[in-house]
Amino acid sequence: MPNLIRPAALGLVLTAAMTLSGCGAEIAPQDGKDGENAHAAGGHYPVTVENCGEKKTYGKAPQRVVTNDVGITEIMFALGLEDHMAGYVMPDDKGDLTSVPWKGGYKKTTWLSKETINKELVLDARADLVFAGWSYGFNEGDGFTPAALKKVGIDSYLLSESCRNGQGKARGVMPPLEALYTDLRNLGKIFDVEKRAGALITRFEKQVAQAQATALKGTDRPRVFLYDDGRDKPLTSGAYAGPHDIITRAGGDHVMKDLKDTWTTVGWETVVERDPEVIVINNYGDTSAEQKRKFLKSYPPLASVSAIKNDRIVVLDYVDLVESPRNPEAIASLAAALRKAER
After folding, report:
1. N or C: which end of the chain has fewer CB within 10 A?
2. Type and span of the H or E element at 341
3. Is there a contact between 76 and 105 (Cβ–Cβ < 8 Å)?
4. With 0-12 CB in 10 A as exposed, 13-18 as middle and 19+ as buried, what is 115?
5. 160 confidence band (pLDDT: 50, 70, 90)
6. End-to-end Cα separation, the chain, in angstroms
7. What does the pLDDT average to over 230-243?
8. Tell me, what's the pLDDT at 265?
């Protein structure tokens, strides 16, 4: 394989793809404009969905939802549910929010905090539901859990990517794209916008199928490692986080596909042993993608790894790689990058 697409070059690919396709998702119409929610609430509610193995019943559509993190927030925006939100919480290191298909949602919705979500914040926002996930806001260490919210009268919905699988705090109960589609279907039912949810899923499925049709196959599939961050031990993706489906459906062979978890750490010796031919960097946080790239290129234990020797390093943004409505476009973008790297 010739030298890899540089991060800047991939950025141009991603920008062009977003401009032409709008990331594969357009802003959904508001309630009443598409024929949904036209009937009385009593005609639809109560509704029951299964969320992370638990049956949850809603007597009406939540009106003051607080979301945590960018992918979760954009799921709500993609469904056109910003009018049902009290606001969102996320740090300001998650990329440009002004050119995304859901920039209207960001303009209309209050950015409640750039710090960690907590019980006091959602109480002040008069939230009736918090949409977050395990390690996407919810954690026992801070005492911010669905059980704690229930005690103060606030409901919760867990991001399906983050569902715990019964093995301690390990996460993941379904393939990543299935998790996205599950949340879209559930939220469509909860907010009585099932037609919108169905239309999004159909569009995403078509977009993924088109990307797979042109993706590398068979022996041409390069071994791919996802690098999130970490020096002593790398944080990476297992089989249940977004990168697994993004890499696999884009035509790569995910070298950590045997890890039955979402985001988890491994040893560098495992990375060296599996010898990835392409490394995908997760771009977010205080450490820039270029700084991560320089570390990988200069870290002596990785000198013999094919991706490092041949300078095949691709950059995708955080929101592309966590569960979000940007996942299908990320598959298409990575498929194009892998094809270019093969030439």
Report:
1. C
2. helix 327-342
3. yes
4. exposed
5. very high
6. 6
7. 97
8. 97
